[in-house]
Amino acid sequence: MIGGVREYFDKDYRKLKYILDTIEKIYASYGYRPLETSVFEDLNVLLKKGGEEIREQIFRFDRIGLRFDHTVPLIRFAEEHKELPRPIKRYSIGKVYRNEDPQRMRYIEFIQADIDVVGSSSIYSTLEILEIAELVLSSLGLSAQIEVNDRRFLDSVVADLDDDQKSFLFRTVDKIGRFGERWVREQIERKGIGMKYLDILLRSDLETVKDYSKEAYNTLIRIGRKFNPTLVRGLDYYTGEIFEISIAGINVSVGGGGRYSMFSEKHNVGISLGVSRLYDLIDYKDQINSVFIAWIDEFEYADSIAKELRKRGLAVEINTEDRSLRKQLEYASKYYGKCIIVGRKEKEEQSVVIRDLKKGEQNTISLKELLENYSKYFD
Amino acid sequence: MIGGVREYFDKDYRKLKYILDTIEKIYASYGYRPLETSVFEDLNVLLKKGGEEIREQIFRFDRIGLRFDHTVPLIRFAEEHKELPRPIKRYSIGKVYRNEDPQRMRYIEFIQADIDVVGSSSIYSTLEILEIAELVLSSLGLSAQIEVNDRRFLDSVVADLDDDQKSFLFRTVDKIGRFGERWVREQIERKGIGMKYLDILLRSDLETVKDYSKEAYNTLIRIGRKFNPTLVRGLDYYTGEIFEISIAGINVSVGGGGRYSMFSEKHNVGISLGVSRLYDLIDYKDQINSVFIAWIDEFEYADSIAKELRKRGLAVEINTEDRSLRKQLEYASKYYGKCIIVGRKEKEEQSVVIRDLKKGEQNTISLKELLENYSKYFD
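Predict the joint structure of the above. Result:
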């Protein structure tokens, strides 16, 4: 396996799938419609929307590139489908790509789960997607903490800076959580930007916001989550409220989003959850109802039992190798707690041997008993 | 959207997901373990296993490339996990990539669903995966036709040709289904290869196979599916039986596979189903239990109803826009057959209006009646 990617086998895959299924079920239950796009997008479309930083991270071949998020594909899709009534409420769950140095512990492929509302300027959309994010996290056994800020407030605070300074200040302030206030001050000073902007942000509460932007204030009041004046987030396309979703108590970000404008679609709001992040955070108890059937000579009898048990919802692996019973049990004990054994005697009696592979104990029951009460035997 | 890819929105996505879920459920029920790998593989690993034709079709950046099938990632994974007991029975479902000219109506991104057994030289593995393929297709309402041949027979027939001629002959014969016998004869003649090899293949039945390879004969007899002596398939890594899976009656291939050797793993057998192909072939009736809630003034009342209905398993979209009832109904009628309307009067009475958006008829029922018998109102 190359660096910067993950792969999921067996129970790891089931854990991943459990997360994806949980998210998808909740997204769909709110009437959001699924959109599965290609990982490929026109390179020009990607470049037009990526900020400086993203631009260098696009995997490219000729005139196509790999999507670096689900937002650009969504808005491109919305522009291509003018006939769809607005708002378009859609979800997308899948892999996105960033050409980063894997040595820096960054993933070059990771999974994001997004919901967005395209063509909505209403606060209800924002409230709905925040509610959905909280529901997803609580369903996964995590407690969400949502911090909010507003671009209109931030823009107003730095109104007398030029674009370059503004952009630098925001990018730097955005890292205050990771690198601390001292580091931020040093960076800002070195760039020759006055300290007053940072001081305003650090001192601001909701009442301060009112002095800078009435709209931002009204929005933040309605949202009613934790106000964080130094929260900035991907500045290139956000236009109003922005949010950061963390796990309460441990301060790990699992997603974020905000209100944005992109291409011809001006009023949109969305969030993105980092599935690979969630994977590392949740508790998951792997439960799969499965059994192995070992057999000697009597493949057909074993196979008929396998088919009956599969009909009842069990995953049944039957021995397909030409190997001794000892070898079959050796293999089974690597994957299974119990197994079924059949041979000539069992076929004649219409019975099966059930063997506890941990304890090495076994006993014989009738086939009828197995099929009627199979769940009693495999926990 | 760029050429050569597909995207799936709303009911198209649900159709795709229905196929993927059906396949996955069956694969897992036989005890095959899921493996989700990255779309990225080390370029050298890909190049080492791709034949001439595939090699040119790999999307590359520096030292990584996009996987062109699920077999190379599987064997690379198996080599990295020597500790896993053999055989490894695994399934993989996901996108694979071929850098082809989309103008030629080829997809550059498509979905394949594979099952393979790594480290098995038994005929039972082959029988099992063919049974699984047939079960998948019948579960999707399609009738499978499986044609088989054997590499050992083919190799024996052309034993006195050199490698280049052999490879050319096989690649040409493999296209007989698409281009016909006359075309194949022309190609072979032009290359200066004698006609006798083709004639043997065209005349062969199972008894002929016995004269060329006893092992191939015994294998084909045990497999018991339709023998096709001109079936060749991706010759680079197959070593024994090979199969082609088509839909009976319409002669469209939906997958294939065979026994193969790759890198250090010598005895493996597997099949790959083309999901995008299946997508175009199956009948699918989209069924989603969903409803729209329109409201005037009383958002909270509407929202509490939405939450109750979601708990009961319905997908519920609630209006999140600041728009008139007329506009809400206009929107709802694009996506829904019926909708719920609430306002001040309904809140006071604890009732809801149910409107048939097609017929324009509506009537009022109590909230209690809705929550108790909701399925009666939304078909």
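Chain A has 17 helices and 17 strands.
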